Amino acid sequence: GGDHTAWAFQTGVFATRYRVIAFDNRGAGQTSAPDHPYTTAGMAADTLGLMDALGIDRAHVIGVSMGGMIAQELALAHPDRVRSLHLGCTFARPDTYMRALNAAWRDMRIGLGRDATLRTLALWLFAPTSYADRPDLVEMLLQNALANPYPQSVAGFLRQGEALAAHDTHDRLEAIRCPTLVSVAEDDILVPPRFSREIAKRIPGAELHLVQGAGHCYFLERPEVFNELSLDFIARSSR
To answer: How many CB atoms lie within 10 A of CB 166?
Structure first.
């Protein structure tokens, strides 16, 4: 999973209307990466601890990819703390293909250097149209990631991967009762839209929105669409 810098196109925009907290999950960025098993439920507990430390009683929670899995667990374990939920490009549980891909990424991270790993992973993160039509954007995002002074450790990458492979909220999602938006890009080849459709189907009253012209990192490829979608949903959920 990425660190808080992945929200570079969101934090400033959102902060004009709300108090915004973007943070590094365990195993990423400036948060420690202990080399023992992680779970998405455990990282949800980390999130709750941060909310408590900052005096945040309830929050509009946005989580993408692994963050969306953590957000699911937070909403299930502490429904009184989640005012609304936006789950982006995520899944309730991995299928056989996803687990095989996760294992391949693990081997790749061990076998390749950080730079080669990032450039290879990017092939799953960005839409083919982004490479074709906006290569400068893709290269800028890659350069920013490579210049991160707090690169993810091998241990953090592997432990987060284990947490993703074990994540499973599929049979519990119907217990989520807060306003929920599920969004995904139509060209997401890493976590295809079928996963988001399944989540939206299982959460009562959930909205589903598909974003065109982007891949897994649609919040970076189409930030104007993601931001408008998110802010509109938060405003409606605040009434």
So the answer is: 15
